[in-house]
Design goal:
The protein is an alpha/beta fold and about 230 residues long. The chain has helices at about 20-35, 65-75, 95-105, 120, 150-160, 195-200, 210-220, and strands spanning about 10-15, 40-45, 80, 110-115, 140, 165, 170-175, 180-185. The protein has an eight-stranded mixed β-sheet with strand order 3-2-1-4-5-8-7-6, with helices on both faces. Helix 2 (about 65-75) packs antiparallel against helix 7 (about 210-220). The longest helix is centred in the first third of the chain and has 13 residues, at about 20-35.
Length: about 230
């Protein structure tokens, strides 16, 4: 009798990561522990489709710099992985394309968990081929101040009409799509990449907001100065 291979549970955490900070790491640690994932892949976007530059006037740092900061940030966490899948993309990086490429590259059975903040999730109807995504991944929707669960529920009901809410487990399920919508409550992150860039630009300290190795890299490379 053939032995069934249990699918790996892989979390996907995309973002600009300019820079990666302690809030990103806290989020990854929370999700990997709560959902008992095997690993979390950090996926820095090369050309985010909804972000051509930072609102503070700074250009997005090079992909090389952002990868280097991620490498330093996760070096102590063996279950955290960096995917450079976006490195050679010349077109904007859409989630549906990235996920399909990842599924082709992963050589073993895998259940993917797409981690997203509630604020970004509310705009999912603007995403490329968004209705196909629940057939490819589970969504892990992280709470954000000002974005209550009922707002998330409205978006799910409107865009994915066959999903039903399970209040006991705080999960949305469907009889037709394999993916789940999993709601996760977290304390608000007291740090943001925008605030870090602002502090660096103003000559202020960022100790405790990013790992020490990331702070050292920012100073050495003179990032976010102008």
């Amino acid at each position: 009798m053939q032995r069934l291979i249990e699918a790996k549970k892989i979390g996907l955490l995309g973002g600009t990561f300019d820079p990666v900070h302690n809030g990103h790491l806290a989020l990854a640690k929370h999700v990997i522990q709560t959902l008992q994932l095997d690993s979390i892949w950090f996926i820095p976007a090369s050309l985010p489709p909804h972000k051509h530059g930072h609102g503070d006037g700074l250009k997005i740092s090079s992909f090389t710099h952002r990868i280097a900061m991620l490498e330093r940030a996760i070096s102590r966490y063996p279950r955290f992985v960096i995917s450079d899948i976006e490195a050679k993309r010349s077109a904007p990086s859409y989630s549906i394309d990235t996920i399909n490429i990842l599924l082709q590259q992963i050589k073993e059975p895998a259940d993917l968990y797409f981690i997203i903040g509630a604020d970004a999730f509310l705009e999912i109807d603007t995403w490329k081929r968004h209705k196909e995504l629940p057939n490819l991944v589970n969504f892990v929707v992280i709470s954000r101040p000002g974005y209550p669960p009922d707002k998330v529920g409205e978006v799910i009901r409107f865009n994915f009409t066959d999903y039903i809410y399970d209040p006991l487990h705080e999960i949305w399920r469907s009889k037709h799509s394999r993916g789940l919508f999993i709601l996760q409550n977290m304390e608000p992150m007291p740090v943001s990449s925008t605030e870090i860039r602002k502090k660096v630009r103003g000559g202020k300290e960022i100790a405790g907001l990013v790992p020490q190795a990331v702070e050292d890299y920012i100073k050495k490379r003179k990032l976010y100065i102008a």
